């Protein structure tokens, strides 16, 4: 394991236990402009979010001795006369955060929120409105489809699920073929993440409507094929997932969808562990992938380029991104400096791009923005797609 | 409101508060062959189900005074020395049941289960294995796609979600067009229900693989357009949803998918409230719908036939079904006898079919079976679809 890989593993461990608290001075009294979170269950007033990015929880538990939430400094919950507990956090970063509620020692989902898959379970999440939330809002633009597909995997002897985003025009051009991006979630997440938390489909719909991205297909599947357990990433082996993705899913997609099947028209990207997977799989399969995106998931060094035969001729784009707070806190630099890695690639003539998401950490807001910045750079070599 | 309608409203009220307990003698000691439920979160051992159909819950809540579940006669939960609470139900009917856990007065989802939308919220569900579960199992057969689509509704000034099932062969025959079934969920449920709880896609995949059903498209959208609140069904008005479905969704589907757009190739069905919606919408739009399915959601009487112009010439199939326990308990007969209604239709020359699901109540197992029985009867008038 090289230093980049080792640094990344350290980072991934750290990521799971941090949440998105802003490191900022906090007012004594929260601003009283609370609104129900957009991630709430239909009709649920709580949790609420205010303009500072604080989240207020309310749980009815008349007989409980204690109620709390998993946000660090989540505030002390207080019970009123009717047995309703209320508490609020300090200001959180913009974007999406996972959390749990604790009632008398029981870790449970908040009945007020919708549920998302993270940390290896379906549980609560809350959205703190971001200044750039329009980029993943449901707008009045043509919408693509997010398709649940089932494919048989001989290597795992199982029928596996993937989600496939097809761009808005896909149904209108029955003869046209499209490039494909394989897009991976992080550790403890699953194939639902990029749609449910990441809004990948809405980000693409909006970019395409604005003429900023070429339409392409996105494929999202479960990347924990090797049954990685928390703490086990240092023993990570890519082969089981590589087999599912490269030998089974890619042929299924190319047989089922109107995909362009040549190397220049196939990309892979991923966040956190999914970035690590992307790096390992693309470097071993440069005959199949031409565009590489690593979101909070390591970088590609000049050593990688020099040690990988045909890299310069094969790779059309290397995109590396991090949340700005990851860089501030130094975690992203433990295995080398990803920004400096990108500069070295650029100097060596590689089409490499570095992006830092302002004021966000190892969380979905960084990755939504990463996709928004990455997608317009993809498949620009052919603005008139071939058949 | 006629008597059928009034009886149905009574039934729908009753349905929400009953659950699927078997009315049977119960052994003193449960059979010790517990297995994790198929509806569990990945890696969760609890809840477990045994061969009697009992469900055992386990919740860690060290400081709690009381823990219970929402199943009637759910058993008294007992706490062990490590603060883990365990309880089990009496034998439940085969199939899927919604439930909640109560911890010191807080109604919360079970952290061990996946979450499903019912009773107006995402919450826990548990699957009791059924003797006919192969009909909705993931088999090694060609699979269709379950597509999330977004369409703009001018009448509600909102972008709305639907799920669209396309049959396995849909991508292989780019020139072929398919009939469409509009399929509705029940009160308090949403457009996810027929996929997540109903396994409509898997039921169709399996029927098609066995040659028992013609391939067709299924469209599932949210049917609570009129903001029906519990207790408000007697003031139910069909117009808002009828507008969304007939004037907005049908044109969207016909513009986006390779659907057959003539009346003989369009069906509608629904469960419970969705059956009521189906009855009202189809009888008012017989120029658009030819096949009608009512699952635990009322029936069509001979009076309906006589009072609806063109019924005999337009309607190719009336399918009425109930859970056997609904019939046993008399609830389904309050507004008339649905089986007798079907007999009267048959005598009048209508192609009408009645089905009773053995030993199940107003629950998803009845509706999965209803779809399994209904689908093979659809669109048989044209085994060589027209363009």
What would you note in describing this structure?
Chains A, B: Keywords: Carbohydrate metabolism, Glycosidase, Hydrolase, Polysaccharide degradation, Xylan degradation. Chains A, B: It comes from Posidoniimonas polymericola. Chains A, B: GO terms for molecular function: acyltransferase activity, transferring groups other than amino-acyl groups; hydrolase activity, acting on glycosyl bonds. Chains A, B: Pfam families: Esterase. Chains A, B: This is Endo-1,4-beta-xylanase/feruloyl esterase. The structure is a homodimer of 387-residue chains. By secondary structure, the first copy, chain A, is an alpha/beta fold. Chain A folds into 2 domains: 256 residues, 3-Layer(aba) Sandwich (Rossmann fold), CATH 3.40.50; 97 residues, Sandwich (Immunoglobulin-like). Chain A has 10 helices and 19 strands. In chain A, the strands form 4 sheets. The first copy, chain A, has an 8-stranded mixed sheet with strand order 12-13-15-14-16-17-18-19, with helices on both faces. In chain A, a hairpin with a 5-residue loop joins β2 and β3. The longest helix of chain A is centred in the middle third of the chain and has 18 residues. The first copy, chain A, is globular, with a radius of gyration of 21 Å. The N terminus of chain A is likely disordered. Chains A and B meet through β9, β11 and β12 of A and β9, β11 and β12 of B. β12 of chain A pairs antiparallel with β12 of chain B.
């Amino acid at each position: 394991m090289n230093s980049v890989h080792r640094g990344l593993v350290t980072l991934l461990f750290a990521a799971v236990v941090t949440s998105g608290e802003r490191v900022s001075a906090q007012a004594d009294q929260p601003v009283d402009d609370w609104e129900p979170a957009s991630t709430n269950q239909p009709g649920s007033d709580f949790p609420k979010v205010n303009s500072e990015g604080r989240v207020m929880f309310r749980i009815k538990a008349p007989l409980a001795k204690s109620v709390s939430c998993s946000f660090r400094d989540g505030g002390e919950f207080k019970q009123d006369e009717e047995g309703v507990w209320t508490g609020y956090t300090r200001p959180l970063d913009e974007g999406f955060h996972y959390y749990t509620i604790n009632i008398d020692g029981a870790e449970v989902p908040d009945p007020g929120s919708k549920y998302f898959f993270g940390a290896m379970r379906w549980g609560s999440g809350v959205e703190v409105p971001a200044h750039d939330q329009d980029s993943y809002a449901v707008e009045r633009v043509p919408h693509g489809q997010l398709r649940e597909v089932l494919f048989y995997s001989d290597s795992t002897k199982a029928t596996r699920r993937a989600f496939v985003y097809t761009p808005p025009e896909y149904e209108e051009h029955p003869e046209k073929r499209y490039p494909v991006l394989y897009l991976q979630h992080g550790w403890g997440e699953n194939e639902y993440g990029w749609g449910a938390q990441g809004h990948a489909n809405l980000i693409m719909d909006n970019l395409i409507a604005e003429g900023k991205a070429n339409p392409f297909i996105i494929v999202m599947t479960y990347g924990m094929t090797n049954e990685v357990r928390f703490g086990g990433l240092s023993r990570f082996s890519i082969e089981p997932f590589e087999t599912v993705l490269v030998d089974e899913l890619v042929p299924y997609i190319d047989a089922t969808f109107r995909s362009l099947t040549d190397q220049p028209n196939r990309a892979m990207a991923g966040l956190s562990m999914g970035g690590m997977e992307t790096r390992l799989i693309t470097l071993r399969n440069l005959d199949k992938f031409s565009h590489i995106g690593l979101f909070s998931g390591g970088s590609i060094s000049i050593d990688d380029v020099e040690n990988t035969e045909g890299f310069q001729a094969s790779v059309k784009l290397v995109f590396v991104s991090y949340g700005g707070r990851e860089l501030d806190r130094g975690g992203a630099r433990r295995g080398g400096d990803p920004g400096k890695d990108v500069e070295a690639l650029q100097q060596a003539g590689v089409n490499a791009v570095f992006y830092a998401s302002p004021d966000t950490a190892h969380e979905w807001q960084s990755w939504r923005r990463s996709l928004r910045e990455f997608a317009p750079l993809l498949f620009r070599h052919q603005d008139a797609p071939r058949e």
